[in-house]
Amino acid sequence: QVQVVESGGGLVQAGGSLRLSCAASGSIFVVDAMGWYRQAPGKQRELVARVTGAGRTDYMDSVQGRFTISRDSTKNTVYLQMNSLKPEDTAVYYCFVGSNWLARDYWGQGTQVTVSS
């Protein structure tokens, strides 16, 4: 059974930092992309960042320059370093694992990030 486990969420003040971690384990034969979505109450889920095993990265405009995604391919682990956090970043963050750039094969349970003013 495949498991995707997230950690690192919490409550921080505006301007602070958090580092999210996501580890995938189990019978995963092909992992090309890993990344993060987020969803705030009443809003559509949006793609925050993703990275391939070759190091290709993609960020949504509102986090560009503040967030950094990285990956340890040997351990199927992805990280999201979030700096200069804003209240608008408050959401549940979901990790995903995909067998190609577009696939979203597995999902984590979500971790809450709350940024106070």
Structure, described:
This protein has no helices and 11 strands. The model has no long low-confidence stretch (mean pLDDT 94). Strands 2, 4, 5, 6, 9, 10 and 11 form a 7-stranded mixed sheet that branches. It has 117 residues and is mainly beta.
The best one-word shape is globular
Q: Helical stretch count?
A: 0
Main sheet characteristics? 7 strands, mixed
Rounded mean pLDDT score: 94
Q: What is the beta-strand fraction? A: over 45%
Number of DSSP-assigned strands: 11
SS class = mainly beta
The quaternary organization reads as single chain
Keywords:
117 residues, 11 strands, mainly beta, seven-stranded mixed β-sheet
Short description:
This protein is mostly beta strands and 117 residues long. 0% of the residues lie in helices and 53% in strands. The protein is built from no helices and 11 strands.
